[in-house]
Design brief:
The protein has helices at residues 35-47, 65-80, 92-101, 113-116; strands at 3-8, 11-18, 21-30, 52-63, 84-88, 108-110. By secondary structure, it is α/β, with parallel strands linked by helices. The protein has a 6-stranded mixed beta sheet. The radius of gyration is 14 Å and the shape is globular. Residues 11-120 form the STAS domain.
Amino acid sequence: MRTNIIRHESMMVSYDVINGWSVVEVDGEVDVRTAPMIREGVLKLLDEGHRHFVLDLGFVTFMDSMGLGMIVAITKRIREHEGSLRIASVSGRMLRIFDLSGMRESYEIYPSAAEATQFAPTPGSLAHWPHPFSG
């Protein structure tokens, strides 16, 4: 059952638990105004005991550097709680942002939330984050 956790004029965030994964769906703009709200929403879920997350970006219409920073911040907190994070439904435009920022190698990126949640989470999924530089 999908539960809304944030409503804002330019963005909404909801989550559902599927196969042991907390699927956080972001709908709208992820920018300097909304990224802190998303971070707080995910951290609240983490405090409530959720450990394994899929961040579904399929309905994100815009993301700036604050959005990428928010993803890094929640990743660090999830890792502190021995959880895991997958990214799902990233558009080609956003995938380019992940490429340009060097973040693509650090995350498991799936074409859809359904594919990201196909198998139950395993402990230690973020053991190698951030991805070691191999240059």
